[in-house]
């Protein structure tokens, strides 16, 4: 479903032509209307399948980190573990809102809206922190120790949680955002007043940009080194960082896609805008799925034990001092 800064574009021409199943569905909706069932097959069920798959991947990632005991090895996997937990909680709340909406159980969809907003906001700074951690492992072991090691990563994570919570509250309250289920679209977040939702969301664009800059700077740094990634542990670390880059780029592309819909909202007809929102409802969760899925697949791809792929060095990067000599 639509979340983050895609809170339905203050466009009531969509609302006018797409009637909700029940008024704003704030206390649950009934699917007794036969005209709704046909459209819900794509706008309702497909996003739900993506959310369930997201939940499955995040649970696997949590079990993977615990079973390999990676939490003891450094801050990177600890931050990834926290991100997965947040997404799991979000997914469970959203799935509950789907069930409540389908069977009219009275669970307010506003809870899922808050969970969606917070999770999407939080994913951006936590991805940046993981990228910064990887960058500092190569460039400055001293600053990496200061910011991330010996449980110091808790402070930047708490800061990320705080700013994400403030962004969520500020966006929803200032713009009076509500969530509803509409024919042709599915769940949609819309605002009744402009507020600060768009401005707040655009501020968070700096995090995927920052992650990309970290990768570029790391590439330039390694290019200048005479001892350029000759160890297998270095190759694995590069792959971890490349997966972070892919995730950051996906978040960046999502932001561009959202901005494009905002820009074209007054140009496209209702059907075209609704189609774009339906697509956005599905792909909105893909960036959060990508990182844990790629990390797990890359590990299984090697077919080696944790000690053989030196995963401990990925987490704490003690060998980073080699490049600093």
UniProtKB/TrEMBL annotation:
Protein origin, superkingdom: Eukaryota
Membrane spanning residue stretches: 44-64, 76-99, 111-132, 153-172, 200-220, 240-264, 276-297
Span of the signal peptide: none
Annotated keywords: Membrane, Transmembrane, Transmembrane helix
PANTHER family attached to this UniProt entry: G_PROTEIN_RECEP_F1_2 DOMAIN-CONTAINING PROTEIN-RELATED (PTHR22718:SF36), SERPENTINE RECEPTOR, CLASS X (PTHR22718)
Name of this protein: Serpentine receptor class gamma
Originating species: Caenorhabditis angaria
């Amino acid at each position: 479903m639509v979340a983050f800064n895609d809170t339905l574009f203050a466009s009531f021409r969509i609302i006018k032509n797409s009637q909700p199943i029940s008024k704003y569905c704030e206390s649950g909706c009934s699917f007794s209307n036969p005209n709704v069932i046909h459209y819900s097959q794509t706008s309702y069920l497909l996003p739900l399948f993506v959310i369930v798959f997201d939940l499955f991947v995040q649970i696997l990632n949590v079990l993977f980190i615990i079973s390999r005991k990676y939490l003891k090895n450094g801050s990177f996997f600890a931050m990834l573990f926290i991100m997965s937990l947040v997404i799991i909680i979000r997914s469970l709340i959203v799935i509950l809102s789907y069930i409540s909406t389908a069977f009219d159980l009275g669970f307010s969809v506003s809870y899922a809206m808050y969970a969606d907003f917070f999770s999407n906001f939080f994913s951006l700074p936590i991805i940046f922190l993981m990228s910064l951690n990887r960058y500092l492992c190569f460039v400055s072991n001293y600053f990496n120790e200061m910011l991330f090691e010996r449980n110091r990563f808790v402070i930047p994570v708490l800061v990320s949680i705080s700013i994400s919570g403030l962004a969520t509250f500020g966006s929803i309250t200032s713009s009076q955002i509500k969530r509803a289920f509409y024919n042709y679209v599915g769940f949609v977040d819309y605002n009744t007043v402009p507020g600060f939702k768009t401005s707040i969301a655009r501020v968070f664009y700096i995090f995927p940009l920052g992650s990309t800059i970290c990768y570029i700077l790391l590439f330039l740094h390694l290019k200048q080194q005479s001892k350029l990634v000759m160890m297998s542990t270095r190759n694995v670390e590069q792959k971890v960082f490349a997966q972070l880059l892919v995730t950051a780029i996906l978040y960046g592309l999502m932001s561009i896609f959202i901005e494009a819909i905002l820009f074209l909202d007054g140009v496209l007809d209702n059907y075209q805008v609704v189609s774009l929102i339906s697509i956005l409802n599905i792909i909105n969760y893909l960036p959060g799925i990508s990182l844990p899925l790629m990390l797990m697949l890359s590990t299984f791809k090697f077919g080696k034990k944790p000690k053989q792929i030196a995963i401990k060095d990925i987490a704490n990067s003690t060998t980073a001092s080699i490049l600093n000599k």
